[in-house]
Design brief:
Length: 87
C-alpha cells in the first residue's frame, strides 16, 4: 500500500476482514470520515485502512462504537478527557 493509492470497498473489506456493509455503516455513523468517490464508487486511502484496523482491534477488545467514536474525535479535536481519579 503506497501513499496515494485508493482502494475499492471490496478490496478494503478483503484486506481488513470486514464486510462492506460494516464499512458503510462506520461511515454512516461518523467513525469513518466521508470517503472520496470516483464515478460513484468509494475510494479508500491508506489512512482509512489504518483507521479501520484500529476500529476492528478496538471492537475485538470490547470497546463500543460510541466509545471508539469518542476516542477518535476527542483526540482529533484536541479535547482533554478528565478521568476519575486523575488531576
Amino acid at each position: 500500500m503506497i501513499g496515494s493509492m485508493a482502494f475499492t470497498i471490496s478490496e478494503v473489506a478483503k484486506q481488513i476482514g470486514l464486510r462492506p456493509s460494516a464499512i458503510r455503516y462506520y461511515e454512516q455513523i461518523g467513525i469513518l470520515p466521508p470517503i472520496q468517490r470516483v464515478s460513484g464508487q468509494r475510494r479508500y486511502e491508506v489512512t482509512a485502512l489504518h483507521r479501520l484496523v484500529v476500529i476492528q482491534r478496538a471492537r475485538q477488545t470490547g470497546f463500543t462504537l460510541t466509545e471508539i467514536k469518542q476516542l477518535f474525535f476527542d483526540f482529533e479535536l484536541g479535547r482533554r478527557r478528565q478521568f476519575v481519579g486523575t488531576d
